[in-house]
């Protein structure tokens, strides 16, 4: 159910948001410290029932400490008419602000967990938003008849929320935040790059994980892939996904120095899916792939191009994890036997319905993705964060960390690699990009997390050290954690390096330790 709101005229609201955006770009003159007597309880009292920098506080509640959560003040607020945010103010504030991005098509305040929880535990004030509408993360219905909601989702929500959050922190603690950082994955990664491109002075540092920055190209590619799966004979059984994944691992896994189920050196992988072709191309069972199934593989692993090259999408290489529960195809591509249950289908379907065809009854499998050039252009103008010229961001002295899971089944690591290379060229070469940006690929990791690889990495700590102390990050650390215990560790290597096993052979204990891997050029 959509939350009722008293809507201001669209033009008036946009002008208000524009003013807020400009105001958000200002920073402090120097380091600040929170008031000595600042507490979560006093922060709540300072904000309860107030309107601060266009944000009307609807609730301010002290949340008691638990084994996992620190004591903090939870503040809910609304920037009229429809942008909802949640600010969390810790008992012991470190003087900084952390903004966590959303996911999918947003529509709700993300729960306190993962990187945002860790930031709060470290003393950051943290903020999230619903990006300007209430709804399901798999639905773009908000964009059909609400241009303000579409604008907020596209790029306007983040600067508006940050402006209010800064002033609310000042009101709560008596000092503004001395640094502000943004971190997001997937849609949150798109928001991260959008901020770097359109509001380059907004944040002191940005972490963009697996960014969905190429929104139009990705949606077109997913539309093409869904049609291939839906074609007669295109669906994959679990056995066929296992066949494909095992063939990739057999051909490519050991190219990184160890056969551990993770393809860490994909550039050395030369596996040809045609080797799995059924005799004559017909589907003769689970020991081979038919021509229709090979067409699905070809659709995913080849570039996509639309509108005479105006919108493109990088290939999604085979990773050897096609059969993985969280890093594989069942969830994202095939829908476990029904393509209409696959996440890629659902995302492109709602995009076709509400941005392109502008008809909720449109069947995306029957829709020609390039049929409405004006709608494609509008979608791109709203949601694409593909501008590689980050010189204004660089000149603001802000820092950027890019990260992508090497086995991501949703968003192509190659797309992030292509963007990083484009940024490198746009700012004047490697020496220049090294002054403000780092890029890491985590082998065997799925979409934002999951997969057999080491998927847990603290990027906020290195970013803060880079911003505040000038300590540029090099090789970082990553871990695979289960039930609160580290199962394995790996170095997180700066692109284009990958972690190559250099430890003793046939030693499972050694293979679980980062010390036995060396960051190596492909």
TrEMBL record:
Pfam families assigned = Tannase
Task: Keywords in alphabetical order, please.
Answer: Calcium, Disulfide bond, Hydrolase, Metal-binding, Serine esterase, Signal
Q: Which domain of life is it from?
A: Bacteria
Gene3D superfamilies found in the cross-reference section: alpha/beta hydrolase (3.40.50.1820)
The residues forming the signal peptide are 1-23
InterPro entries per UniProt:
AB_hydrolase_fold (IPR029058), Tannase/feruloyl_esterase (IPR011118)
Q: Does the keyword Transmembrane apply?
A: no
* SUPFAM superfamilies per the UniProt record, alphabetical: alpha/beta-Hydrolases
Keyword Chloroplast recorded: no
Q: Name one GO molecular function term.
A: metal ion binding
| Assigned protein family | Belongs to the tannase family.
What's the protein name? Feruloyl esterase
- Organism, by scientific name, is Pseudorhodoferax soli
């Amino acid at each position: 159910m959509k939350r009722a709101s008293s809507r201001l005229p669209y033009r008036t609201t946009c002008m208000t948001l524009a003013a807020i955006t400009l105001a958000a770009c200002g920073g402090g003159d120097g380091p600040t410290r929170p008031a000595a007597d600042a507490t979560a309880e006093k922060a709540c009292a300072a904000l309860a029932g107030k309107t601060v920098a266009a944000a009307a506080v609807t609730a301010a509640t002290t949340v008691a400490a638990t084994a996992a959560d620190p004591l903090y003040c939870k503040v809910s607020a609304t920037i009229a008419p429809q942008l909802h945010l949640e600010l969390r103010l810790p008992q012991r504030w470190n003087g900084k602000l952390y903004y966590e991005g959303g996911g999918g098509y947003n529509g709700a305040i993300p729960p306190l967990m993962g990187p945002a929880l860790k930031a709060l535990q470290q003393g950051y004030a943290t903020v999230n938003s619903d990006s300007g509408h209430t709804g399901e993360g798999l639905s773009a219905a908000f964009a059909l008849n609400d241009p303000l909601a579409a604008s907020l989702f596209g790029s306007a929500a983040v600067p508006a929320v940050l402006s209010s959050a800064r002033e609310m922190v000042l009101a709560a603690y008596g000092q503004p935040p001395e640094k502000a950082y943004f971190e997001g994955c997937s849609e949150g990664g798109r928001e991260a790059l959008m901020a770097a491109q359109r509001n380059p002075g907004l944040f002191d540092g940005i972490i963009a994980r697996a960014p969905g920055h190429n929104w139009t190209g990705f949606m077109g590619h997913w539309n093409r892939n869904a049609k291939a799966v839906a074609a007669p004979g295109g669906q994959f059984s679990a056995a066929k996904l296992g066949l494909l994944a095992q063939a990739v691992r057999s051909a490519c896994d050991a190219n990184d120095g160890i056969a551990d189920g993770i393809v860490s050196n994909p550039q050395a992988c030369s596996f040809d899916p045609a080797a799995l072709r059924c005799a004559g191309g017909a589907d003769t069972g689970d020991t081979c792939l038919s021509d229709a199934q090979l067409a699905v593989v070809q659709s995913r692993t080849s570039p996509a191009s639309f509108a005479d090259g105006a919108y493109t999408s990088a290939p999604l290489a085979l990773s050897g994890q096609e059969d993985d529960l969280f890093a594989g195809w069942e969830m994202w591509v095939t829908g476990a036997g029904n393509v209409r249950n696959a996440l890629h289908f659902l995302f492109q379907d709602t995009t076709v319905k509400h941005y392109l065809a502008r008809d909720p009854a449109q069947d995306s499998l029957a829709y020609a993705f390039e049929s409405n050039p004006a709608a494609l252009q509008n979608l791109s103008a709203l949601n694409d964060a593909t501008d590689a010229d980050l010189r204004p961001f660089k000149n603001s002295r802000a820092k950027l960390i890019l990260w992508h899971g090497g086995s991501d089944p949703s968003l192509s690591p190659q797309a992030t690699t292509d963007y990083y290379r484009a940024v490198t060229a746009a700012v004047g070469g490697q020496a220049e990009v090294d002054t403000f940006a780092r890029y890491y690929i985590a082998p065997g990791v799925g979409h934002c997390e999951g997969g057999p690889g080491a998927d847990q990495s603290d990027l906020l700590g290195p970013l803060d050290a880079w911003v505040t102390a000038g300590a540029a990050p090099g090789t970082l650390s990553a871990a695979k954690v289960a039930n609160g215990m580290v199962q394995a560790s790996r170095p997180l290597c700066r692109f284009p390096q990958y972690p190559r096993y250099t430890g003793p052979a046939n030693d499972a204990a050694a293979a679980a330790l980062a010390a036995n891997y060396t960051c190596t050029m492909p």
